[in-house]
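Field reference: sequence -> structure
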Amino acid sequence: MYVATKNAGKLRELRAILAQYGWEASAFAGYADVAEGESSYAENAALKAHALRAALDAAGIAAPALGDDSGLEVAALGGRPGVLSARYGGEGASWAERRRRLLAETAAAVAGGTGGRGARFVCALCWVETGGASLGVVGTLPGLLAREDRGAGGFSYDAIFEYADGRTFAELSEEEKNRVSHRARAVSDLVAALAGRIQAPGAGTTGATGM
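Structure field:
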């Protein structure tokens, strides 16, 4: 299968997680990022997957397309930044700048009594077959927003998201994170939903059985 992303960290995680189920995934050079909406992870994942499907069709490649849209929701901020997570602080902001801004905004909200430091990661996946049939799932993982960056691993908001054991995602090994993350949960649900309907395809091939 091919994944609709230009994000190297996201692609690396999806490839590792999918490999646990015997699935192979690759990026497609002909895929161009799409303009995302501001209200729905599922809709954004579908936009990406269908755009990739069109690019694969144009190239004559019969392989499934997978779209992913993910974000971090903070309780004290009413669920922000949510679907705008990758655009939080402006298109030109670095991930370090986004984390600093989010920590400051959350600290101010908590001090003002508008909520706690509860947070959750969300991942929506959309699978599109060669014929255009699609399937979507959403995985979530609750946790807490840390008070400062911790850890050298991961990417995006991993350094400020505390997992249940008190470590941030950036303090977990890649293997640990890929067993428990929101993305791992979404992939697990997708694989379960597809079970019996298709065979596991490798990159550049398809195992469609009339989905």
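Note: Strands lie at 2-4, 26-27, 65-74, 81-82, 118-128, 134-145, 161-162.
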